[in-house]
Amino acid sequence: MRADLSLQQSPPFSVPARFLVSAPLFGLTAALVLLWHGPGMVSHRWTPEILAVTHFLTLGFLAMSMLGAMMQLTPVLMGVVNLRPVLFSTVIHAPLFLGTACLGLAWLMQVNQLFIIAMVLLGFSFTVFIVVTTERLLRSKSRHVSRSMMLLALLALLITASLGIYLVMGYTGQTLPLARHLADLHLSWGLMGWVLLLIMAVAYQVIPMFQITDEYPAMHQRWMGWSVFSAILGLSLTYIWPLETLKTLSAILLAGCLLTFALTTLWVLHKRRRQLVDVTLNFWRLAMISLAFLTLTWAISAILNLNVPVLLLGVLMIHGFAMTTVNGMMYKIIPFIIWLHLSARNKNLRDRGERSSQVKVPHLRKIIPEAAGLWQFRFHLASLLLLAVATIWPKWFYYPAALSFVIAQAALLFNLSNAVRFYNAKIAMLSIGKAGSDPV
Amino acid sequence: MSAEVLLDVSDLEPPEPLVQVLEAAEQLKPGQYLRMLHRREPCLLFGNLDDNHFSYYQRKGTVSAVEVFIWHEKDDEAAAAVQAIVGVPIDTSG
Q1: Which of A292, A365, B47, B93 could form an SS bridge with A8, CB 3.0 to 4.6 Å?
Q2: Average pLDDT of chain A to the nearest whole number
């Protein structure tokens, strides 16, 4: 006998899929820009090429996939209902995609008008997303700690986007000066606020669920979000009141939170209930090792007053921690939603008495084959290691790093596109009634 | 015939807990209930149980983090058996 399964609150497949497949497109674009422009572009952090690459990754890869993941996960995990999910996702996705492309091109081609278009498109996309999702989350009946952390992450995104728009106004050729001193604030709220808080909120749900572990300790979950948020707020206040004590205490609190989260996650994964190995586990472990390494590098360099390349910290945070986490989660989320949607279609057919039209729904691990994911992980790992050393010795490692990054992102795009093609083929089979030849 | 059908899905990865519980629920005979043991609050399960006309009761588990009791909506005998175990009145109005 088969289980009768319905989609419940899960949005249509196209809602998360458009975001998740767009992400490696921007990852690949960033990697190609690195390859094309050569080692000169990493001479300092303010080169237009570095700014373009950074924003292709943070907006095009990270924000793109994180918004898509939120549209999938908040209805299922938080009971948040979006009344017009396809319309909502289109209104968010299209301006985010075009705005990110315009912003990157504005730096690469030095066209001021593109900054204005990017500012309007990205401002619109983020404003609509933040307002609608915040309102929905506030109305959610869920009392899971992830809900409050997601709300904090959205507040951090609002601050990041506002600072970003203010900074971009300095590039538009208008009268406003470029407020470069606010760039670190924009970066802190973006990476430590929005990205880190959202990853934590999602990790508390998906690690126990998909990696078959116990829950994170209750105390850890209860205090982590507020501690991270307070630390960034403390660091931000020092821009207004330059209090050295507040800056030091906030930095210590933030470093403590990063290290605690990384080590607790590694511990939870190590103590998982079934010692199954899958590619997502590799991604989670790599992400947490990167986060721990980043924190120790940052802390030691601050204590000993060492001059660590700021691009190394950027590589460890953006590529090593954030992209690695998102990449790994994609290999769980995409197969799961494909399985869910195909199973629900089969249920509808059974309800209508059309059992012969059902399609075969494979095991989750077969939708994106483990071997394909593992190969992509190897290239991802190689690109991380090479990019990290290339920030110190660009002459030797720059091109191997850029090339491996291109391959890793192309492989991710290939794997995700294949999964979507598989889904579309099954749906096409259902709609033309040829699934009878597909043994269920 | 025992009234209780025990199903431990604590060590299964998604979507197996959902699939196995729905399959086991379909096979319940009159008077029987399913006692599901899980490591966490289930996802997507309750809406699917509603759709398939099952009643359920969730509580903190003793041997696992969460226990869910599941029975056919109109099965008063199974509902009474669950009520005797959990010790709280259960609404069987459907």
Answers
A1: B47
A2: 91
**CATH label of the domain that carries residue B31:** 3.30.110.40
Q: Report d(CA A313, CA A418) in Å as an integer.
A: 33
For residue A1, give the nearest of B15, B26, B40 by CB distance: B26
- Chain A closest-CA separation from residue B90 CA (Å): 22
Confidence grade of residue A176 (pLDDT, cut at 50, 70, 90): low
Does residue B94 fall inside a structural domain?
Answer: no
DSSP string computed for A113-128? HHHHHHHHHHHHHHHH
Q: Does A215 sit within 8 Å of B15, measured CB to CB? A: no
Assess if residue B70 is contained within a domain: yes
Both structure tokens of A343: 């199973």
Structure-block tokens of residue A33: 């820009």
- C-alpha A416, offset from chain centre: 15
Residue A31 CA to residue A239 CA, distance in Å, equals 34
For strand B66-72 and strand B54-60, is the pairing parallel, antiparallel, or unpaired? antiparallel
Name beta bridge partners: B57.
B69
What pLDDT, on a 0 to 100 scale, did the predictor assign at position A180? Answer: 74
Please give the residue of chain B at the shortest CA–CA distance from A207. Answer: B13
pTM value is: 0.92
**pLDDT, one tens digit for every residue, chain B (94 residues):** 788 999 999 999 888 999 899 999 999 999 999 999 999 888 888 888 988 899 999 999 888 889 999 999 989 999 999 999 888 877 655 4
Please give, rounded to a whole number of angstroms, the shortest distance from the CA of B23 to a CA of chain A. Answer: 5
Is residue B93 included in any domain, yes or no?
no
Is the residue at B91 inside a domain?
no
* Helix, strand, coil content of chain A in percent (nearest 5): 80, 0, 20
3-state secondary structure of B57: strand
Q: Do B10 and A273 touch (CB under 8 A)?
A: yes
C-alpha distances in Å from residue A183, one per residue of A64, A83, A190, A238: 21, 37, 10, 14
Q: Which long-range contacts (CB under 8 A, 24 or more apart) does A98-103 make?
A: A99/A59, A99/A124, A99/A125, A100/A26, A100/A55, A100/A56, A100/A59, A100/A60, A100/A63, A100/A64, A101/A60, A103/A52, A103/A55, A103/A59, A103/A168
Range of the domain at B37: 4-86
**pLDDT (mean) for A323-333:** 97
Taken in order of first residue, the domains within chain A and their CATH numbers are: 14-422 (1.20.210.10)
